[in-house]
Specification:
- This protein has two domains: about 210 residues, Rossmann fold (3-Layer(aba) Sandwich); about 60 residues.
- Helix content is about 35%, strand content about 30%.
- It has eleven helices and 14 strands.
- α3 packs antiparallel against α4.
């Protein structure tokens, strides 16, 4: 099925002391988008707007081509949500939770749910309050994947998990989008996870959209120029996104590292990862 899973256009939310300012991005079907930014950048506000948990000030959000407010019931039947904390009644067992979900989702697949509980090695009759954090996240995935969801939304769901469980979750996300009809919005601080699975990266800083680009474009093109003062002074400042001055050298983030390699042979030019790009945008200086 062609088209976009999610379209956010000029999304604005004004709290008075914080402004999410005209945010726009699109997630194609079959794609995983990473949503990054520092604490307080507006990632959770964006997700809450998408889920219609808070009233937006301006803009439009469409999911599967439908308005997220007018068609909320239809849309939420097709969305799976995994938060950073347990949002299920913690006095329930997984079996009891499944019975509750059957009354909420019109497309609930109990056999599928049971299969995920087995695959994730979750105890069927143990209360959720006695689960480890990793077990709670896996339970949230079991629910999200058991009602024919076409869009998964993760809000810091992997933070604080050990690398083994995180790797299991990344495998789940990759499998989920294989049919090219399912999509994922993945908000996280762990940018190395995005480098493994994301197709696109959207970066928010202080409520503003910095960029929304294909991940491979970022990894393949961005670079860090490491040089002394003489080379730095000779650089075309329009090519520099931001720079950081250290004791005896400069480090500058550029969008085209291959061009920089040819233009400044006396400098060292290294690839930039997503963490590097974030840090330069947030902490770097500009001229």
């Amino acid at each position: 099925m062609a088209g976009n899973a999610l379209e956010v256009k000029n999304l604005t939310k004004d709290y008075g002391d914080f402004l999410l300012n005209k945010l726009s991005f699109t997630i194609p079907r079959g794609a995983i988008m990473g949503l990054i930014g520092e604490n307080g950048a507006g990632k959770s506000t964006t997700i809450n707007c998408i889920l219609n948990e808070i009233t937006i000030t301006d803009g439009q959000i469409t999911i599967f081509g439908k308005d997220n407010i007018l068609d909320e019931v239809f849309i939420k039947n097709k969305i799976g949500i995994i938060f950073d904390e347990n949002h299920f009644p913690d006095v329930l067992t997984p079996i009891e939770l499944g019975k509750c979900m059957a009354g909420i989702y019109s497309n609930w697949q109990n056999r599928e749910y049971q299969n995920y509980l087995t695959q994730f090695e979750l105890p069927l009759k143990k209360k959720i309050k006695d689960f480890s954090r990793g077990m709670k996240v896996k339970l949230a995935f079991a629910v999200a994947l058991s009602h024919n969801a076409e869009l998964l939304i993760l809000d810091e769901a992997t933070s604080g998990l050990d690398p083994i469980i995180r790797d299991d979750i990344l495998d789940i996300l990759i499998d989920f989008v294989q049919d090219e009809n399912h999509s994922v919005l993945f908000s996280t601080h762990i940018t190395s996870d995005l480098e493994k699975v994301a197709d696109y990266v959207t970066f928010i800083h202080k409520g503003k959209l910095i960029f929304s680009h294909p991940k491979d474009e970022l990894i393949d093109n961005y670079g860090i120029v490491i040089c002394g003062a003489a080379v730095f002074d000779s650089m075309d400042k329009s090519e520099i996104i931001a720079f950081r001055k250290q004791d005896f050298q400069y480090k500058a983030l550029v969008r085209n590292r291959r061009k920089a390699e040819k233009k400044y042979p006396k400098a060292i030019v290294e690839p930039a990862n997503i963490d590097d790009i974030m840090l330069f945008y947030i902490k770097g200086e500009t001229k």
